[in-house]
Every structure is written in structure tokens, then in C-alpha cells.
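::Amino acid chain::
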Amino acid sequence: MSQRRFVVNAGTFRQLMRWCEQWPERRFAVEGARGLGRTLAQQLAAAGEDVVDVPSTLSARARLLATGGDRKTDPADALHVAQVALFRQDLRPVEPEDQTTILRLLTERHDDLVHERTRVLNRLHAVLRDLVPGGAPTGLSADKAAAIMKSLRPETATDACRRDIARDLLADLRRLDRQVKDNEAEMRDALAATRTTLTVLPGLGTVLAAKVIGHVGDVSRFPTEHHFASYTGSAPLDASSGNNVRHRLNTGGNRALNSVLHVIA
């Protein structure tokens, strides 16, 4: 067994590959390949190396079995990650990032923009409520808010301040509307590049189809539909005891995909 510690910097990947040349048949195990280990894992995968993602929960269990505690050291952690990779044949291989990753990034950005737009719209509605007799109508939009503000004639300094804030919020709302529109256009282009037929299914538009592909990736990684249901948290959990057969709601799994399935339904 050989070991070496590498300082993480721009040259880490090249140093690692030079050191590994002495083992023509090799496999890399990266803990958290979708988190802190993403950069190195993706560099290795792009170079055609055999790379697997070791979940931190599995390496923690290996550490607990080996030491009887949870004391962590870098050499011991590396050993336990390697042991998991040796004995587990069901670890997820790391694939080079592709169009599915782009879709996931775009959908996450879309969610952020929509949440921020909702917050700004709610705040604008609250300000207009105090400026317009009877309050601002529901179903507010940027155009409706602009039409309302044209007729405003503040009578006090306080109302003038409210009007100025409303103008700023309206500008923010218009900017967010443009950003959401641009994001969805990028999403449509990225979705078209995948040549998916998901959008022909009832209930699946551009955003939802992009979320499905972005979070699922290669669907063949799920051996059966039951594994997929477990991954999305849509399969109930067995809570049977003795002769009592019962199930309970699964609050785990990929909640983004779980939400998509509920919207489609």
C-alpha cells in the first residue's frame, strides 16, 4: 500500500495523475463527488478514469466499524473511503458533466428567480396597499402596478417615500421578469439539445421536463421503477410490526423531483 498527501490547488490533478502512472489498472474513490469533491472527480472522469462516488454516510460507517468511534484523520478517512469502494459494488460511477448538469443549473437558477420575484411582488403589493384607497388588487403584475402608480398623488412626505419605494420595487420586478424569461429561453435551448420527448407527455412543460432530466441524469442508473420511486420519495415506507401491516409517508428522497411529480399529477 502506498499513500501520498496532495495540496489542493490548480496543479493537484496533474500531480495526482503522474503519481498514479505506476498503477495502470486503477480506480478512484471520491467522497462527496457531488459536493466538495466535485472538481477533482470531474477532472478524473473527463480524463476517462474509473471514478466512483462514496457517500459520506458509508465512509462514516466504515470508520465506526474500524475504530469503534468517530475520530477523523485524513489518512484514516482515505483508507475507509477506499475500503468502501473495494467492497461495495453498487456505488454510483462519476460521469462527466453534460447537458443534464446544465439543465439542473438552469432550473435551480429559475427557482431562485421565481422565489425572488414572488418576494418583490408581495412587498410591492404591501406598499401599494397603503397608497391606494381600498388596497391594491390581487393578481398584481408589473404592468398593473405601473398603471396604478400613474394615478398616485402622494399628499404627505410618508406617502411620497412609499411611492419612491414602490418605483424601486417595480424596477426590480421588471428586471426579474426579464431574467425569468431569458432563463426559460436558455432552458428551452438546452432541452432541445437533449432531444427529449418528455414534453409531449401531459403535464410536462419546459421547466418541469428540465427539472426531471437535470435531477435524474441517466435514468438507466435505476434498476427498476421501484428504485426510482424510492429515490424521489414517492414510495411509502414500510412501518409494519408483527401482524400489523402499515406504511407511512416518505419525507426523504429527492424533494425537487418529488415536487415535480406532484405538479405533473
About this structure: The first strand starts at residue 28 and ends at 31. Residues 12-93 form one domain. The chain has three domains: 12-93, 99-194, 222-264.
